């Protein structure tokens, strides 16, 4: 949970006095719990072979978007949990064949895992119809530290710093005094391995696959390591 702190004893001469202190790095870990899931749904329609105009493809894609929204709302999602993600369109030419596509993106932000996943599973019948191209991408979840856990970890980090500073002070033949400065350093976070987490890729599922009733697991967690640079005053020489 903790790495060995590295410290140094400073003697800083000033004009009329000498300021003495020991500075070390104290660390402690705390668990973060996923409190909000975020999903990007991309609804697309493609017109192949040049037999469908751009306008028709865009109209069909918009119709499918409305069906997806209606299905999500009918299966537990709430309006404030659905957000506009923009649209895209384009035309490709391959071996004299023309293909037009138009897509809409819907962003889902939900704190209830069970309700979110049930709504996503309800989209499977739309995918089975063949015309709908639906891609589901899990995005980074929002994590929070449980109430009270952060202050406990901060105290543990300072205690860790004091433990190592005491060892340095004894080795230097001086007595450790009070904390005179604390600087928070950038925290380190262990990756949880969940879909959508940065550098773990996306869950691109071409649609919400039909499945039996899903067992809901505990909320995802990851570890945050807190680091503080702590400066302790030196009081007097140890006899």
Provide an overview of this structure.
- This protein has 2 domains: 8-33 and 144-206 and 216-237, Translation Initiation Factor IF3, CATH 3.30.110; 35-143, Alpha-Beta Plaits.
- The radius of gyration is 28 Å and the shape is elongated.
- The chain has 4 helices and 9 strands, in the order ββαββααββαβββ.
- The chain starts with 7 loop residues before the first strand and ends with a strand.
- The protein is α+β, with helices and mostly antiparallel strands and 239 residues long.
- Strand 1 (8-13) and strand 2 form a beta hairpin.
- 23% of the residues are buried.
- Strands 1, 2, 3, 4, 5, 6, 7, 8 and 9 form a 9-stranded antiparallel β-sheet that branches.
- It has helices at residues 54-74, 113-121, 124-128, 149-172; strands at 8-13, 18-48, 82-94, 97-110, 133-138, 142-144, 174-184, 188-189, 221-237.
- Residues 1-6, 9-18 and 199-212 have low confidence and may be disordered.
What is the fold's blueprint, element by element?
Layout: E1 8-13, E2 18-48, H1 54-74, E3 82-94, E4 97-110, H2 113-121, H3 124-128, E5 133-138, E6 142-144, H4 149-172, E7 174-184, E8 188-189, E9 221-237
Antiparallel strand pairs: 1-2, 2-4, 2-5, 2-6, 2-9, 3-4, 7-9, 8-9
């Amino acid at each position: 949970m903790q790495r060995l702190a590295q410290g140094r004893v400073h003697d800083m001469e000033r004009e009329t006095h000498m300021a003495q202190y020991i500075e070390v790095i104290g660390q402690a870990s705390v668990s973060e719990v996923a409190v909000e899931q975020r999903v990007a749904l991309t609804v697309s329609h493609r017109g192949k072979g040049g037999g469908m105009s751009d306008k028709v493809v865009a109209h069909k894609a918009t119709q499918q978007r409305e069906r997806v929204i209606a299905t999500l709302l009918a299966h537990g999602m709430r309006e404030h949990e659905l957000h506009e993600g923009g649209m895209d369109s384009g035309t490709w030419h391959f071996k004299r064949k023309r293909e037009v596509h138009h897509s809409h993106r819907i962003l889902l932000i939900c704190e209830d895992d069970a309700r979110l996943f049930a709504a996503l599973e309800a989209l499977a019948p739309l995918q089975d119809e063949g015309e709908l191209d639906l891609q589901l991408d899990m995005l980074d979840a929002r994590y929070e530290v449980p109430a009270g856990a952060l202050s406990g970890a901060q105290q543990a980090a300072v205690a860790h710093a004091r433990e190592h500073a005491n060892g340095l002070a004894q080795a230097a033949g001086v007595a450790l005094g009070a904390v005179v400065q604390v600087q928070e350093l950038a925290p380190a976070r262990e990756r949880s391995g969940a879909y959508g987490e940065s550098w773990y890729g996306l869950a691109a599922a071409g649609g919400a696959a039909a499945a039996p009733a899903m067992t809901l697991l505990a909320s995802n967690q990851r570890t945050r390591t807190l680091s503080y640079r702590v400066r302790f005053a030196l009081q007097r020489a140890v006899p």
